[in-house]
Amino acid sequence: MKKRIKLKGRIKSYILFGIYLGILLFIVAGAVFMIDYRAGILLGAFTVFYFVVTLTLYFYNKPVIMNELISFATEYGQIQKKLLRDLDLPYALLDDAGRVIWTNITFENVIHQPKGYNKSITSLFPTITRDRLPDDTGVDEAQYELEYEGSEYVAKFKKISLKDMAENSDMIEAKDYNGYLIAVYLFDETALHIALQEVDDQSLSVGMIYLDNYEEALESVEEVRRSLLIALIDRKVNKYISSLDGISKKLEKDKYLVILRKKTIAQLQESRFDLLEEVKTVNIGNEMAVTISIGIGLDGLTYAQNYEFARNAIDLALGRGGDQAVIKTPESITYYGGKSQQVEKNTRVKARVKAHALREIITGKDKVLVMGHRMPDVDSFGAAVGIYRIAQTLGRKTHIVLNDVTSAIQPMVDLFRNNPEYDEDMIIDSQQAIEAAGSNAVLVVVDVNKPSITECPDLLRFCKSVVVLDHHRQGTETIENATLSYVEPYASSACEMVSEILQYTYDNIKIRTEEADCMYSGIMIDTNNFMTKTGVRTFEAAAFLRRNGADVTRVRKLFREDAAEYKAKADAVSQAEIYKQYFAISVCTADELPSPTIIGAQAANELLNIKGIKASFVLTDYQGKIYVSARSIDEVNVQIIMERMGGGGHMNTAACQLEGTGLAEAIGILKRTIDSMLENGEI
Questions:
Q1: Is the pLDDT of residue 424 over 90?
Q2: Residues 444, 498: Cα–Cα separation, whole Å
Q3: 87 close to 72: Cβ distance less than 8 angstroms
Q4: Triad 104, 107, 110: Cα angle to 5°
């Protein structure tokens, strides 16, 4: 073996240096001999002696040197092996199938297995399957985060090819051999993650607390006791925030700025913001309980961004009716509470201000486009007709965007089509609306604030000036950058809001009977014949329309049902299942009818007449989707149930659409959602 081993490189040059020097001396001796033969003979004799000694030492020492090199290499290999075995970094080798074939001591201590453990790496870390390891498809490295026995690791896998070693082996035939091993390194990042989590927990979040019904609550108590009520509310808020190691500062009479650590937000979420309920317990004889809204901004890049998130969150909380908390982060928005009915505002100042702003916007444009939501209902079309009258009175060309005329609004649409009092292009479709849109057109969106379910979502991009008038509670998805936004969840219907605006837009505005009937119908349908969500302003709006020619008998005739629709609704009511004692769930099978979803909504209203029912849900399979209509009276907020399923609406009236599911599966989803929210105390 020693004869087969040859030296090379610097060590070979070092050993042969003496021989090279002897050759040089022979050359020098020859040159000296030419000058002086006696000196040349003497130097030649010395050179021969030097050469003999050098060759003797070379052949004698070479075996000794080779033995030393082999011994060093052997010992060096042992040292390397010992270093790897004693390395503080957990290290192991796997074969190409992912089976452990060698481990060091640290790795054995981590997995609590003795030396010689040779099972698959998946048996130790279930998330590391064979397909996630480096392989012969060109993936040479991989890295994953994993957890093992309470510790968190970053596992790095590196492919080690055996091809070159096998080709140089005298023991195996290695032609076309592509075998490899996989090296595994475990980096314990538990302490790092704990430190990062601690830093994250200590980061500051910004919150805002608004009193929803400050003025109304004060008016319900004696004047001499009002200061006491305010003091008790202040004490309740400040004490609660202080218990969380936070800071609260009163900005205005009904507004607070709150600074909290992020860690305490998790505590608030666990308690589901019980401050919302605690404030309601403040009672010194006030007839109306005080409710608050909370908006919190988290995980912003700067404190200013967190403050902006908090402002957006509080706007959402108020836009959804108050008495709830909203947490906004860069990735998500989370809602808590929202179980109380919003109190109707008695003042019409806001309606007057919005009416004047709307008038200014319309007069500054040449054309007005009005649209509601997809599959329009009576309230949506009635509100659009009201805006049409405002724009026409102000002398602006106006179009109502309407694609599909459902059976619900067919009687009303017929009042305007082929009517010589109205333009033929009063009602246009989406394509015509896009062609008519431009920089000098204003788009008014009624009865919806969610862009994806508007009659023509693309129209929002083509119109620079957008006005939103809606009575639904706002959700995560809203129409952004609206020139004017008037969203009032307390209102019974969009027609009620438009009726109020009508009175302030133009003095002594003239409304035709057809238009008055449409708006009156919208209020009547959305309030279920004035039985739900009606307030003083609802009746005032209805009275205004009645004075302007709305006829109750004529409206009633417009919405009489045919026999098939009536039977379908009765069938849905008769099939209702009472779930968890308080929830009525039914299915509307009205495939042959033009608008089965309307029948489903009506059936949901009817189910509320059953004694003990707090909420009703009717599911309709229509055009490949499952439509869920949800209704309640006062105890259950069906909006948050529908939001959990991807929809939205009001506290008492909400809906959602499910795609890719059957009726049975949709009912299962609904029941699981109800179960989960009941268990967590959300409803």
A1: no
A2: 12
A3: no
A4: 150
* Residues 401, 368: Cα–Cα separation, whole Å: 10
Question: How many angstroms separate the CA atoms of 653 and 282, rounded?
Answer: 30
The pLDDT mean for the chain works out to: 83
Give alpha helix (H) positions in 87-148: 105-111, 121-124
HSE of 499, CA atoms in CB hemisphere, 13 A: 31
Check pLDDT > 90 for residue 375. Answer: no
pLDDT for 489? 78
CA separation for the pair 152, 143 (Å, rounded): 13
Run of H or E residues at 261 = strand 255-261
Helix (H/G/I), strand (E/B), else coil: 633: coil
Helix, strand, coil percentages in the chain from 3-state DSSP, rounded to 5: 45, 20, 35
Closest CA to 520 of 512, 595, 388: 512
Task: Name 636's Cβ contacts closer than 8 Å, sequence gap at least 6.
Answer: 582, 614, 615, 683
- Residue 657 bridge partners (DSSP): 627
Asked if 424 and 418 touch (Cβ cutoff 8 Å), the reply is no
Helix or strand or coil: residue 442? strand
**Alpha carbon distance 640, 246 (integer Å):** 29
For the chain, give the number of residues.
Answer: 683
What predicted TM-score, i.e. pTM, was given to this entire model?
Answer: 0.57
Report the share of the chain in percent with pLDDT over 90: 16
Q: Take residue 533 and report the two structure tokens written for it.
A: 């969500």
- AA identity, residue 658: L
In angstroms, rounded to a whole number, what is the distance separating the alpha carbons of residues 174 and 167? Answer: 5
DSSP 142-181: EEEEEEETTEEEEEEEEEEE-HHHHHT-SSS--TT---EE
State the pLDDT at residue 5. 55
